[in-house]
Backbone:
């Protein structure tokens, strides 16, 4: 196994992690920004107010995109397993 192969696998795994975490993080960021704007407009500075909408948003994203996320992860794992014979040499 060469250094290039290891770097290629590492880059692929980082890209996959970014693709999988992206939707969840974007929804959490958008909900947090919206709640933050609402809190600053109404001057309600309660820390726990943003938690429940973020939790609901992340859960909704996981329900909607969970199948796609799992399929991407399984595909990456299958590719890694398929590469094992060429990595042993």
Residues:
């Amino acid at each position: 196994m060469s250094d290039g192969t290891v770097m290629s696998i590492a880059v692929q795994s980082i890209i996959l992690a970014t693709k999988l975490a992206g939707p969840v993080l974007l929804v959490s960021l958008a909900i947090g920004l919206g709640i933050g704007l609402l809190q600053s407009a109404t001057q309600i500075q309660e820390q726990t107010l943003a938690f429940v909408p973020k939790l609901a948003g992340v859960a909704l994203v996981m329900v909607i995109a969970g199948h796609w996320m799992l399929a991407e992860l399984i595909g990456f794992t299958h590719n890694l397993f398929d590469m094992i014979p060429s990595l042993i040499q």
Observations:
- Helices lie at 3-42, 51-88.
- The longest helix spans residues 3-42.
